[in-house]
Every structure is written in structure tokens, then in C-alpha cells.
Amino acid sequence: MNQYDFLVIGAGPAGGTATLLLARHGYRVALAERKAFPRKKVCGEYLSATNLPLLESLGIASVFRTSSGPEVVSVGLFAGESIVTCPIPRPGGYAAEGGRALSREALDPLLVSRGVEAGATVYQPVSVEGMERISTGFRCRLVHRENKSVETIEAKQLVLGHGSWEVSGLPSQPAKDKTLPDDLLGFKAHFFDSTLDRGLMPLLAYPGGYGGMVEVDRERMSLSCCIKRGKLDELRRQNPGRNAGDVVLSHIVASCRGVRESMESARIEGDWLAAGPIRPQIRLRDDEPGIWRVGNAAGEAHPAVAEGISMAMQSGWLMLNSIAGTPDTERAQMAYRQAWRASFAPRLRASRFIAHWAMRSWTVRASVPLIRRFPGLLQWGASLSGKDTRVVRETASPQESRATSYRL
């Protein structure tokens, strides 16, 4: 029987960060991931400058800087015929450097490989298809997806770092409720030869949805977007035979001059990715002793604010800090939930406001003249969403020495 201090489920930015931090601090860590790497994900792929101290702590800052897209220096709004831009807000202490975007097929394997170097054991690709509480923690049944072989491991504690859109046998990934016209569906694709201004990350506002654009690695532009199910059904009825991603892109291009001009000579790389429904909310629970939720499993903001990866990675740091602060798991979990809500609940509220504003044509039309006159409102909105909110304030955990000496 393979026994660990922690089993981390999901090797995205949240699970990968948690695995690396825990392994670095001497814990016996296993990481279980459903998909083989590299793999693409529906994701905006932007990491704000607030992550730089964490990236330094993880030892991947230099790789991130050289592998990612250009520094993002401005935010913008593409809505109707209007194009408005302004400088992006910078967190204190890192005013000389902005955030960047790195594709998930590059970021996720980087975190996992560093976790392995730190001593973590990776099970991939596997599905966690059974989980039961035992006297020493948890017993989990892993099914290898390639040959269907079964393996059982035990862990004293679990870290749920999986996404929120998939359905599995885990209690944290239940079957979705009935579909609703207001469900948000996500789409994403990479493009070559876009003419999007270098260093610009605009919010796209269009009827029934919102999106964003940013330059990532390999001189590609990433376009990620959401649209209401009812609006997509309407558009597909008007465009029979076309795939959903192309229909959504045509709708965005027709609705936003900035996208139209940036995409005139663009070429898509591969196919559109789709996911959903996206249902932003806080998912932390007080009744899960020994179970930690990080990333989207803990809570999810509307993608309109481009803070998903930042929240995911920073939540892993908050978890480690809470564990290091006390040998009492119950107290540590309580401290983590409090720190998570203090750090991220304001972003969820801001993201809800921005997303619902962007999806309503009349609110956008009414607001654009004011935003064009006072473009600093965009900077204010970016600040509310967390672009200059520092969660990780040092280049290493302030509890590092205590965490190294403490074992479960």
C-alpha cells in the first residue's frame, strides 16, 4: 500500500502549486491527474504581476519570464465600435514589471516536473474513482486510464485541486443540474498572425457574453470567451452547419471593432476548445475535515477579470502557510478558509459585477461614453478585480522554517 501525507487531485495550476510547495517542505505527496500532458485547457492563461513573489518562491520565475508572452502593460475595452485602453495597475513593490500569459500546455507540466524534482509521486493519467475515510485518513482507488489497471493508495489528507466543470465520482464534482438558458459556456483558441497591440489585454463585451485576448508564448494570441447557452442556441440556429466556436467568433467579430481589426489576418491553431457550464461561486466547506480545496474547487470568479490562474496558484500558497502555522489540522483549515475569503471573495464580487455589465448591451452602450472620457475607470475595474492585490508578499513562505520541521 502506497501511503502519503497528502494526495493532490488535479495537476492544474492549483494542484501543481500545492504539490510543489508541500513536497518542497518535506511532506510525502502524491499527485493524481486525469489527462496526459501536455494538454490544452479553456483558460485565459494570464498571470498577473501579483504572482511574481510566488513564482520566485517556486523557482520558476526565470523560466516563466523567458517562456511566456510579452509583459502586459495595458488593459482595454473592445465594445461595439469603441476601443479604449489605459495602463494596467501594478502591485506595490513590483511597479517595474507587469504580468504575462503562458499557455496551460506549458505552465502545468512545468509545475508538475518541479514537483517531481522536489520528491512528489505523480499518477498520470488516472481517474480517482473511489474515496473512503479510514482511521488514518483516506483510501483512494485510482484507475489508470490507459490500461484500466487499478491501484489503491492511502493519504492522511486530501487536496482537491481539480476543475469545476468536469463530472466525476468525487463528491466535489457532482453531476450538473438541468441546463439553463443563462448557463455560461466557455470557448478558447490560439491564433497566429494577430495584430493585437503588443502588451494589451482587452475585455471584449458583446451581447450575451464576454471574453478576453492576450498574447501568449510562441507568438500566439489567446482568445477565450464565454457566452450564454440561450444566445449560443440562437446564433447556431442562424448559422446551421457551423461549429460552435466559429459561430461565437463571428458574433464577437461582428460586435467588437477591436477584435475585427485584430483578427483580419489571424489563423487559428488547431480546433476550438469548449467547456462548461461555468458557474462562479465559493465552494469552500466547513464540514470536510482533512480535505483542502484549492483553485476552482475552492471558488471560482467570472473569467472576465482574468484572475483564475492567479487565484488558483495563490490558494496553494495560502494552504501551505496555514498548514505551517499550526500542527492542528482543524485550526489550520479554519485559518485557510478565512485567509481564502479575505483574499479572494472581493474578486468574486467584482467579477460578478463586471461580467453582468459586459453581457448586457444596454449597460455597455450607456457606459462607453463615460469610459472613453475617463479611461482610468478601466484601471479602477482592473484594480477591483485583483490586479494589484498582493496575496504572496515574500519570495518564500514566512513559515518555511516551521513547515520544514513539522510533519503530519
Defining key terms:
408 residues, disordered C terminus, 26% strand, alpha/beta, FAD/NAD(P)-binding domain, 7-stranded mixed β-sheet, 16 strands
Secondary-structure topology with pairs:
Layout: E1 2-9, H1 13-24, E2 29-32, E3 46-47, H2 52-58, H3 61-67, E4 74-79, E5 82-87, E6 100-101, H4 104-117, E7 121-123, E8 126-134, E9 137-144, E10 150-160, E11 184-192, E12 200-206, E13 209-215, E14 221-228, H5 229-238, H6 244-255, H7 257-262, E15 267-278, E16 291-293, H8 308-325, H9 329-359, H10 361-373, H11 376-384, H12 400-405
Parallel strand pairs: 1-2, 1-10, 2-7, 4-12, 10-16
Antiparallel strand pairs: 3-6, 4-5, 8-9, 9-10, 11-14, 11-15, 12-13, 13-14
Q: Quote the CATH topology.
A: FAD/NAD(P)-binding domain
Kindly report the average pLDDT value. 92
Which sequence of SSEs, written as H and E, runs from N to C?
Answer: EHEEHHEEEHEEEEEEEEHHHEEHHHHH
Strand content: 25-35%
Number of helices: 12
Low-confidence stretches: 395-408
Q: Nearest-angstrom radius of gyration?
A: 21 Å
CATH superfamily: FAD/NAD(P)-binding domain
Number of domains: 1
Shape: globular
- Report the biggest beta sheet as strand number plus sense, adding barrel if it closes: 7 strands, mixed
Structural overview:
- The chain is α/β, with parallel strands linked by helices.
- It has a single domain (2-175, 280-394, 401-405), classed as FAD/NAD(P)-binding domain (3-Layer(bba) Sandwich), CATH 3.50.50.
- It has helices at residues 13-24, 52-58, 61-67, 104-117, 229-238, 244-255, 257-262, 308-325, 329-359, 361-373, 376-384, 400-405, and strands at residues 2-9, 29-32, 46-47, 74-79, 82-87, 100-101, 121-123, 126-134, 137-144, 150-160, 184-192, 200-206, 209-215, 221-228, 267-278, 291-293.
- The strands form three sheets. Strands 1, 2, 7, 8, 9, 10 and 16 form a seven-stranded mixed sheet that branches.
- A hairpin with a 5-residue loop joins strand 13 and strand 14 (221-228).
